[in-house]
Amino acid sequence: MVLPLVKLGSLAFRTLSKPIAARLKHNAGIHPKFRGFIIGLAQANHRFTTNMQRRLYGRATDIHIRPLNEEKAIQAAADLLGELFVFSVAGAAIIYEVQRSARAEARKEEIRRQEIEARKKRIEELANEVQMMKQRINEIERRQYERRGLSSLRGFTTAAQPQAAASAAAAAQPTAAAA
């Protein structure tokens, strides 16, 4: 939901920047100091683009390039400034989008890292709990073994008593039979 709104906002911002660029172009031709600056900028841009075109077509670049007249220079510079402004706004919007995406990805990565840490901690807790249970089982088995050992000793004495009583009863019977 947020991503389409951000993209729509950046598109609207770029669209709104075009009239600002047009206003900038208009004002560029009016102010004398700015006018002198942009004429020089336009002439430098004209020389650069002409040399690039000549190189592209394989022609000589060491020739004199005729400068633009003042009106064409102002118009070319104003167009260049307008395009630079629109490009700057679009570039800023792209940089903002990239940074926003990077922050979102960093948040996701942090959440993943925290989940992994929580899982590791839980595994460690479970391993400790298993170890404690093993110790308790061993203790219970040891106690059970000890009880069995003691009860067998008790059973031995208890078992000997009925045998002794049976022997005594058997010994008493022949006396009763003899009598």
From TrEMBL:
One Pfam family, short name: OPA3
Sections of the chain in a coiled coil: 99-143
BP GO terms, sorted: regulation of lipid metabolic process
GO CC annotation: mitochondrion
Superkingdom assignment: Eukaryota
The entry's keywords: Coiled coil
The name this protein goes by in its record: OPA3-like protein
Species lineage: Eukaryota, Viridiplantae, Streptophyta, Embryophyta, Tracheophyta
